[in-house]
Amino acid sequence: MGRFEGGAFRPRRSVELRGVSIPHKKETAQQQTTYMPLPKQIILPMQQHVGVACEPQVKRRAHVDVGTLVGHTEAFMSEDIFSPVSGTVKDVRAIHYSSGKSDMAVVIEPDGEQTVDEAIAPPEVTDYMSLIEAVKHSGIVGLGGAGFPTWLKMDTDLANIDSWLVNGAECEPYLSSDYREMVERPQTILAGIKACLDYSGVPRSLICIEDNKPQAIELLRSMAADDDRIDVFVLPARYPQGASRVILRNVTGRSVPRGGHLTDVGALLFNVTTMSEIGRFLQDGMPLTKRRITVMGDVVERPQNLEVFIGTPIGEILDYCGLTDEPRRVVIGGPMMGSTQVEMDSPIVRQNSGLLAFGESAAVVPQTTACIKCSACIDNCPMRLAPIDIQKAYRRDDVAALDRLMADLCVECGTCSYVCPAKQPLAQSVRLARAYLRAEQRKARGRA
Amino acid sequence: MQVPKKPLVLLAAPQITTPVTTQSIMRDVLIALVPALICSVAYFGLPALSVVLTAVASCMGFEWLWCNLRKIPHTVYDLSAAVTGMLLAFNLPSTIPLYMVVIGSFVAIVLAKELFGGIGRNFANPAIVGRIFLAVAFPVAMTTFVAPQLALSSVDVLSSATPLASGAYAHTPVELLMGTHMGVLGETSAIAILIGCAYLLVRRVITWHVPVAYTGTVALLSLLAGKDPVAQALSGGLLLGAVFMATDYTTTPATKRGKLVFAVGCGLITCLIRFWGNLNEGVAYSILFMNLLVPYIDALTPNTPVGGEGRRRARREKAHE
């Protein structure tokens, strides 16, 4: 049970970090998941996770099957990438992201046969180490958007862990793909949780869901009733309840110290779809090759929750869902944390959970005016940081002030920019400040 | 997929923002001031209206002129100058000559606000600086009050203001305590100010911290000093100051804790001036004085980040290494 024994684990009656209320647009929530047909091409970037990029394991004109290993590296912090289709490798080329970064990508042309790789078989799991080993070869990363290799998260000192939290908050105001997972595949979610608890010996798991998803709460609660290790924790439907440190604080009352991880304070947190994919992988042994994304936006003709092959170009997805007008702002991810795309052949990668397309009205950028010190950013920051002060310190290059303001604790939820009446680019500044502070800290450590 | 005709925009997250803008906040403040405006016109008649209109027009005019002269983007449309004008007018008696109002507006907008960098950069509340300047420069004109009277009560609309007036006066024997204090425009009706306060709270323009802590401190200290706490809390410019001027974003602390410190300090100084000072009224001076302390309050009352709780301990350990 570790060092948090003695009643430290008690679900809170009212949550401590409230967050802000952002109008939800979850019209897609009540629609059954639809399945996208095979796209014309699959583009598999070699970096679909936090850590070291994979190296392409296939050459041009090679044949791949569903589940064939495409990307792999011997580096420690990484996760393998598998082909979601059977077909021919057309190219192994550079790919450029809208962030300015670039990467290698394997381009596959599907042959339509969808023959499964012979090596695919359910993994043999006997203990926790073999579970980690299995997940390591599953292609599963943090599917809520973080993309942290899941096996690496599991590979921790279990002695301290007393709670295995499952994140079904889905606080991004437009997305509903995790909700569909909970409603459509509760049994694989629970299978995943049970396997993790069985092999790890962690005594308790809580599925954390925002109170705007009563159907999912009820369903999972009733299905988990026979296992007293598993329960559902209801969070308020406010942003960003799904941020890992917010969930941790609200559910357990603990906070992660600077530079630390959740495991330092006795908790593991997996996205609900990640957990479900673990459950499914243990049954059929098929690596992660598909995922559900919410496709919506004011120019999308048929908003829906769509299961796509990983690597499908966003242009083909938007064609499939239909466009009523010329898109001007296309976002992969949710409206709060997602990133705008400039190329229609950018692929959906495994940690993406949404694709939004907005028309002309969204191309107008609100004008930044002078900060009036209303303190909305300070009052609403879930980590209780002072974004405006961090922005000022960053602009005057003040590393000591950034350290005092603890810019490194930012979780990049974007709340500060959202609430700012002066439309200051706070989230962007804090993100830059955080990277700057971390680099300076590394430099300082190097000198010491 | 066709390549879109116009390039896709590239922007940092978040992709959506709140519809609240500086202008919408200032508009809300102006709306919250309307009940008090109605009351003051009801009590003091058209002279009150002309003072308000002069102040608002000259404040906005000076801001417009300043931006034109400096060739900087116009900030008139954010309505902050209109709020300053309204608040300045509410701090003046209805009998004041209008040229003084224009001078006060000049001091408020140009000297107190624009010279320090405009909206968001002034260290003191412009309306309060304008008021104090006028009080020092024209002490007689600034204290020539006329008794509030419903001179225009024959008009139907205004007769509905009578309950408000009786409400305010039935509870405030302050006229008897402070004979000269007949009140400036915005000080007369507590209920009108409280309606405005409720509106600002509902619209989340302000939080309860400053108004409650400020009036609460004054009431508590009055009780300790043996004065009538209700009369003290409802009298003079206290409510106007606590709701509209001590809640000014730019010149008050950032965190809720800081705001509480600020408000308690305002209450303390107000009571010191009222009970033992030479002046009858201390709200403006107390807020101005606390405005000067805001950087220090801000430095001493930061929020503790989640995960930064062990900051002191970590620092000690670091020093130990």
For the record, the CATH architecture of chain B stands as Orthogonal Bundle
CATH topology of chain B: Ammonium transporter fold
Q: How large, in whole angstroms, is the Cα Rg of chain A?
A: 22 Å
Taking pLDDT < 50 over at least 5 consecutive residues as the criterion, the unreliable ranges of chain A are: 1-12
- The CATH class designation of chain B is Mainly Alpha
> How many runs of DSSP E, i.e. beta strands of chain B?
0
β-sheet strand percentage of chain B: under 5%
Determine the number of helices of chain B (DSSP H or I, runs of at least 4 residues).
Answer: 16
Mean pLDDT of chain B: 84
Arithmetic mean of pLDDT of chain A: 91
Can you name the CATH architecture of the largest domain in chain A? 3-Layer(aba) Sandwich
Strand content of chain A: 15-25%
CATH topology of the largest domain in chain A: Rossmann fold
Would you identify the regions of chain B where 5 or more consecutive residues have pLDDT less than 50?
Answer: 150-181
| Secondary-structure-derived class of chain B | mainly alpha
Topology of chain A as a string of helices (H) and strands (E): EEEEEEEEHHEHHEHEHEHEEHEEEHHHHH
The count of DSSP E runs of length 2 or more, i.e. the number of strands of chain A, is 17
* Molecular shape of chain A: globular
Q: Name the assembly state.
A: heterodimer
| CATH class group of the largest domain in chain A | Alpha Beta
CATH H level of the largest domain in chain A: which superfamily? Answer: NADH-ubiquinone oxidoreductase 51kDa subunit
